[in-house]
Amino acid sequence: MEYEIKLDVFEGPLDLLLHLIRKNEVDIFDIPIASITDQYLEYLEIMKAMNMDVAGDFLVMASTLVHIKSRMLLPDNSEGDDQEDPRMEITRPLLEYMAFKGVSEELNKRPLLEREIFARGFQAEAEDIALPAEAPLSVSIFQLMDAFKRLIERSLPSEALTFRSEDWSIAERMEYIMERLREKTALFFEDLFGENKTIAECIATFLALLELVNRGLLIVFQPGPENRIQLMAVPEGSRA
Amino acid sequence: MDRGILPLIIEALIFSSEKSVSPKELAGWITGFSEAEIREAIEELKKYYDSAGRSFSLREVAGGFQFCTASQFAPFILRMLRASPARLSRAAMETLAMVAYKQPVLRQEIERLRGVDSGGVLRLLMEKDLIRIMGRKNLPGRPLLYGTTKRFLEVFDLKDLDSLPKLKEIKELDEGN
Fold this sequence. Notes:
A: 240 residues; mainly alpha; Arc Repressor Mutant, subunit A; 2 domains; B: 177 residues; alpha+beta; three-stranded antiparallel sheet; 9 helices
């Protein structure tokens, strides 16, 4: 039997915890740790069942919760009541997170430059990305590789050999691509590489792109044979 | 030079500039008037535009002045520019707020606060020129310290960092939610 589950998207473990606390209408200073932990783990199970990538951060929080739960069950041997409530270990970061969430919402309500208000001399990046009206030509891995090769040849003429430490990873590039697609519905293939400086970094970006396609988070297409290759995030609802 | 023409000179300069201009810069271009006189004239101009019922006003931001349109005209301007409004995702907004309040701040601290890896978001914010690298912390590995840019103040209509909305008292926030 097949059924669909509608999942809210959480930025991270704190976001999920906050959601559970609000949903259960409990006091953040008196979190019913057993029930919240169970619900949290249940949620992780659903994520796994849906083949969603459960990031390590979610698992770390799960172990913290279980640990707190076990400490709550142990009898308190200490003299007096100077021992801190084990739940503070999550209450404190939650409060901090809520404070920042609050100001970020407040900042977002301000009239922002180039969203609500405009100054002179503003040059918009013209949005000439066309979303396909009908079934677009799909792009094969080979076409992608070709496009990537052209890009590398065009943008990196330098023969100079320089060594420097790199501070990117494929995981980071994946996050970066998805982040850009969250702000814009579609991107040109080349746009992803505009700011990359080294071949190695371009390769990391390219591998990240392939990985995202593989996970079904992204589609790559070409509206027509003469058009540039474009990327689009797969809408949340229709992800495999 | 006649003091009466001063506001008009300032108006001409701000109007023709693509960037915001500070009273100090103006004082360098307009000789014969002090910075205080120039500030005074700017105030006159500001009041004039605020009461004239125009579609734009003179805005003070990040230590400078520039003409900006009012929010209600955004849909028309966006149509003209064939652009969609500049947006930031929730993750980007939260990260930006943390950098703004905690600067100079390490990526590690941001990740502790958010509970998730934040490299990609920081990179995006750097690309949008909203945050910058302020230096390195004297710790093993010399990690990078992040802070906000002048552009951040411009985008969020802030005179300076002190004009950021106050981080609400934690208790108050708790009751509010």
